[in-house]
Amino acid sequence: MFNIATVPKPAGQGLSQDGLSLLTPGELLSTLQLPTPAWTQDWAALAQTWNNLPPDAHLKDGGHYRKRRHACYVQDMATGALVQTPHRAHWQPTDYNALHGGFERWFDPVEPSVAAAPAWTQLISAFGGLFAGVQAVPEWYVEAHQFRIDTVGGVGRPTPEGAHRDGVNFVVVLLVSRHGVKGGETRVFDANGPHGVRFLMQEPLTALLLDDARVIHETTPILPADEGSPDGYRDTLVLTYRAGGFQAP
């Protein structure tokens, strides 16, 4: 298990055998069969919208290092249709998120121009199709989170809850941008054993795919790469795919 660094595998095979897959930008585009170069050009414009994220008002550690937006979709796997739901709260049980679980967190919605952009919906739909090839389901209940973790306060914590699962079927962590920071090591561990891998996601459009039932994951804190320039940040898109419905109280 966890041989992603030495034996590259197709994403579906890696998820089935190892519970995870790490895709380079080129592998992401080819695996999801995204329509390049048009898709990459459109995505470059969407990546700029991470500059418009409002603060996360629900951090229980007292920090101010996280900004985010949130959107939800239902993907019908019979037709492939992806439909955005009315804006809703994000909720997780404390079993999965001891720090921020157990209460409804209302985040600002993803901007309408982003939520309806072809590059955005094509990406979400393509991941849904990939995961349905690993685990057949009639529908995916998808949550999309735009995150910016910054170092303005000296340190930023991508996963303040620590190593965790999300309570879904599959998770995608897509690196959008990384600027002026050090640290931020991604760690993935077998949920039922001691084995794990750790690596830095540094190139935009690097994607980590996880089978949430089989692994736990975390990202270590980030610090300014230059002590004289504390305005570094790490931008990610986190997508979760769940069968049977959204998590709710």
Q: Could you please describe the fold and organization of this structure?
A:
The protein is of the alpha+beta class. Helix content is 19%, strand content 31%. The chain has five helices and twelve strands. It has a seven-stranded antiparallel β-sheet with strand order 1-9-5-12-4-2-3. The longest helix is centred in the middle third of the chain and has 17 residues, at 118-134. The termini are far apart. The mean pLDDT is 90.
Q: What attributes does this structure have?
A:
about 20% helix; about 30% strand; seven-stranded antiparallel beta sheet; three-stranded antiparallel beta sheet; alpha+beta; 5 helices; about 250 residues; globular; Jelly Rolls
How many distinct beta strands?
Answer: 12
**What is the spatial order of strands in the main beta sheet?**
1-9-5-12-4-2-3
The CATH topology comes to Jelly Rolls
Structural domain count: 1
Helix content: 10-25%
Which residues form runs of ≥5 with pLDDT under 50?
none
Largest sheet, if any?
A: 7 strands, antiparallel
Structural class designation: alpha+beta
Beta-sheet strand percentage? 25-35%
Which overall shape is indicated by the principal axes computed on the Cα atoms? Answer: globular
Count every helix, treating DSSP H or I runs of 4 or more residues as helices.
Answer: 5
Looking at this structure, what is the CATH superfamily? Answer: q2cbj1_9rhob like domain
Task: Please give the structural blueprint.
Blueprint: H1 11-18, E1 20-23, H2 25-32, H3 38-47, E2 66-76, E3 82-84, H4 112-115, H5 118-134, E4 139-150, E5 170-179, E6 181-183, E7 185-190, E8 196-200, E9 207-211, E10 215-219, E11 222-224, E12 233-242
